[in-house]
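Annex B. Sample input.
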Amino acid sequence: MSEQVRDTVEDMFKTLNLKNGDARQKETITKYILLILEWLQIVRLTGEKNADGIIWQQVYDSLYLLKLTDLNKGLEVIDLGSGGGLPGIPLKICRPGIKMYLMDSSKKKASFLKEAIERLGLNDTYILCGRAEEFGKNKDYREQYDLVVCKAVAEMAALIELALPLLKLEGRALIYKGPRGKEEAEEAKRALEICGGRISGEWQYNLSGGQSRSLYEIKKESFTPHKYPRRPGVPERKPIN
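Annex B, continued. Sample output.
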């Protein structure tokens, strides 16, 4: 199994044609895939249940971001709703100079993330176990980060309310979306206006199997009012509109 995963990871890096991909990064990604497969017997970390699906649907998608915009050394990055560490762990492996914070409300998933950090030897990688609504209200976390990344977490309007309070002024959110990306961006205009953000970049791309994806960059241009984010669960149930 490990050799097969290693070969598929090699193929993925070739397909991505990323600059700076080295043997150590590929080996660490391989170990990460094997760890996810091991833990899938305990907790649902991703919708994909086999190595090929995890590599081509999840890790490939996570790393495609690096073809569109780079992550500079020293950036403080939050992976919002990290789950099994996607996209945060692959991004950290390939850009080791960033500081990565993996945020998830599930204690079981936080346990996986803790083991992944230890077994993969990831420096400057931290776990924030709790809800984004709570961290966004806490002065120790509010407006402290350069970048928020989030993949398959919620509708864009809800993500804007959750992400922007965590960002410094001029910080960015990079939001992965599927085929409904343009529709969700249109629905999120009011949330952007209220929370102080602007869509500053939009990219369309396909996964290796042809599935359409989009990535939105949102820049924080003014401070988010203190009433946001609202109570846990409200941004998803009642998005700003």
